């Protein structure tokens, strides 16, 4: 009996050691993967999440402005850029970086301004109650000259937090983001982030909804699409929450998943951005940690996907 008990005890100890070995091997693999990811971020080489068919390109920094309220994103027109934070918008002169005007929510109704797009003489801003649930979203509209709040469109309870609205070919394209940080499986949770097309009166077009490809979702990680706008080449350009990457996408010929055309390395770290309407391929983005607006020139996208 003693010998049998000894053998059983040995087996239990051996099994426990095996489990510990497996655990530490997995931990080592995770650390190595993290180091590889950090190296690729710094070197601008192979990017985690970009599929083999999507080339990796590099943007070139042109200028940067110190902007203390560059927290959620930036929008730009011919003469000014607009720094967006949760509950305020600040206008700056594009040539000098001088502060021109500021709007701050006096009501307490604005919780989380995510981004703004400029159409004609208005700022069209995506707003949500993130991180609360269920997700509620709205469009908030401001005059670009005065920053006066001139309009509002409630979208009610939405399939995710509205992070951006982009005008393209006579329609508004809205992104409803879901976040994996609040779910057991972060990558599955983020995969339900959707892009929905609305007409100019904010009426949803039925069955016109698209999803992100796996390569881009993997780069989002537990976060989601923070910025988006149609740009050069009639592609949809999208940023995540914190990676220094701009994803170039196009609509599919069939199915509902966007095609990942390219990944562009940018100096900023995710968040909302805006295209300069006066200069081709000039993009304004932010670096939240440094509180800076960064101006870059993006490269042409290869016309033939590899």
Low-confidence stretches: 1-50, 182-188
The helix fraction, in percent, is: 10-25%
Numbering strands along the chain, what is their spatial order in the largest sheet? 1-18-17-16-15
The tally of helices reads 3
Essential attributes:
306 residues, alpha+beta, five-stranded mixed sheet, four-stranded antiparallel sheet, globular, disordered N terminus
Summarize the structure.
With 306 residues, this protein is an alpha+beta fold. It is built from three helices and 21 strands.
Can you characterise this structure?
The model is unreliable at 1-50 and 182-188 (pLDDT under 50). With 306 residues, the protein is α+β, with helices and mostly antiparallel strands. The N and C termini lie far apart (69 Å). It is 18% helix and 42% strand. It has helices at 2-43, 186-190, 214-220; strands at residues 56-58, 60-66, 73-76, 80-84, 88-93, 99-104, 112-119, 122-128, 136-143, 149-157, 161-168, 171-177, 194-198, 204-211, 227-231, 235-239, 245-250, 259-265, 274-275, 282-287, 292-297. Strands 1-18-17-16-15 form a five-stranded mixed beta sheet, with no helix packed on it.
